[in-house]
Design goal:
Layout: H1 2-37, H2 43-53, H3 58-67, H4 71-84, H5 89-98, H6 102-115, H7 122-130, H8 134-147, H9 152-165, E1 178-179, E2 187-188
Antiparallel strand pairs: 1-2
Length: 195
Amino acid sequence: MSNFGNKKTNYSFRTFTASFITIGGLLTSILPTLGVTDSYRNDYRVCAAQLLSLGVTANQAAQSCAVALRPRELSSCVAKIHKLTQITPVDALYSCQQARRPQDLATCVVSISKSYQGSANPATLTSCGRSLLPVTFAECVVGLRREIDLSPTQALDTCIDASEGSSGFGGVSTKPLEFSPNSETTPKPSTPMSK
């Protein structure tokens, strides 16, 4: 009889254990999904919420956040530009979407706009977006305007021309300089090498 009671207990224990494991497996597969979709750690949710709060339409917010590699950075870029300049969120959104580094773009636009004393300037947004190194570009524009009497447009054009004409700010030419035998101070243009 004790052997029969022992078998019955083992059977009950195994049934309980199997049921517990099955229910535990189902809960484990459901709970992470709920945690991801209902959390502000979800970058897409943060992006959509922030863009909507800035007045971007639901359709624009959905499309913009969905295609962004870093949706939280995208919405943060738009928010920073909108709060610290007179640029509209829709204009900022377009430029932030195009930027490789949205935070650098926002820093560039805000820095230059502050040097313009808050005036709205779409050219700033365009120029910062064109620059490969937006933070360095902003330093160029702000620095030149502080020391040289340049209009905002002249400063933007000068710095963007400089950045596009070289391999980047601070770039070093890879062409060797040749000097004439008569004068060591006059550089002579290098001749193209034949292949």
